[in-house]
């Protein structure tokens, strides 16, 4: 059976991708450093446990940072993945302005590590979790893949996604055997139909719907709405 290495598998998008990959009949080796996910008892995060309950399949999990090349190399050597789905990243736009070096080191460094180890073990397929923020200021709608990217990225997080796409392009030019796909997300929301996994970030949510959900269940006291000139009956 084909084995997929999924980074960031305990996070919001990563957990749903992991369920889909398992349901499609692949084996999964999941890795996550649990910076954006609840780590549980330190062995298997709750999200990974719930993935196993949803799919009825076992998941091999490692709590590691993907920038750690030695640990990544150990996983490749032991499990021989056939492809990589790279979702792991620091992802808060506002935070990236405050700590840009951390974002560049983590988001770009993790991709470089994976590509180097993939080359060493002759793994030639990677799906990269990018962002719609690479489009910057929108020039026309509907947006398609011919829309310019990178010209007006508004924060360091967006820039890391753009830089990583460029790294993938350059690497594919140099290595004709490498196949890379970049998925550009537009603010995904929702949860698995089982209700077992969804967006449950560590710290304040960066997405509006996630914030609303936390207010609805009483985790947060209120949702602040800023401004009083909206096109509604009372301006709010």
Automatic annotation (TrEMBL):
Q: Which intervals of the chain form a coiled coil?
A: none
Q: Which residues form the NAD-dependent epimerase/dehydratase domain?
A: 4-227
Q: Does the keyword NAD apply?
A: yes
Q: Does the keyword Ribonucleoprotein apply?
A: no
Provide the alphabetized UniProt keywords.
Answer: Carbohydrate metabolism, Galactose metabolism, Isomerase, NAD
> Which cofactors?
NAD(+)
- What is this enzyme's EC? 5.1.3.2
Q: Provide the catalytic activity annotation.
A: UDP-alpha-D-glucose = UDP-alpha-D-galactose
Please state what class of enzyme this protein is. isomerase
Pathway(s) the chain acts in = Carbohydrate metabolism; galactose metabolism
* PANTHER family to which the protein is assigned, alphabetical: UDP-GLUCOSE 4-EPIMERASE
Q: Give the protein's recorded name.
A: UDP-glucose 4-epimerase
Instruction: Please name the source species.
Output: Limulus polyphemus (Atlantic horseshoe crab)
